[in-house]
Write a structure and sequence with these properties.
about 70% helix, mainly alpha, 4 helices, elongated, about 0% strand
């Protein structure tokens, strides 16, 4: 059985990751923990959106394919200095697609 998506917890991590000038940790254990949380959320949502994308159509499908590709690239090749923000943006896009996948045909 798959872990359920805890959207509120994911949104909290996204908010911290995007708050570069405020609550986002600048280094140390707190930053490592945030990165681990965002990477975990990304991997969970990658699986979810990948499964949904096979049944999406039109622009939503195209968007999903782009977001999936970009997220994989972000995870595989972190950009120093912007990795936390890049992860937070990717996770935010994945969460949006997971929560509002567009019109999914019945029986698909």
């Amino acid at each position: 059985m798959r872990d359920p998506i805890d959207a509120d917890t994911i949104r909290e991590a996204i908010a911290v990751g995007l708050d570069v000038w405020g609550t986002c940790p600048r280094g140390g254990e707190a930053l490592d923990l945030l990165i681990q949380r965002l990477e975990g959320h990304a991997r969970l949502l990658l699986f979810e959106v990948e499964e949904l994308s096979a049944r999406m159509s039109g622009r939503t499908h195209s968007t999903a394919v782009h977001v999936l590709s970009r997220t994989r690239q972000t995870l595989a090749q972190p950009e120093p200095g912007s990795y936390v923000e890049d992860l937070a943006v990717a996770v935010r896009a994945l969460l949006e697609l997971a929560e509002t996948p567009g019109r999914i045909p019945v029986g698909a």
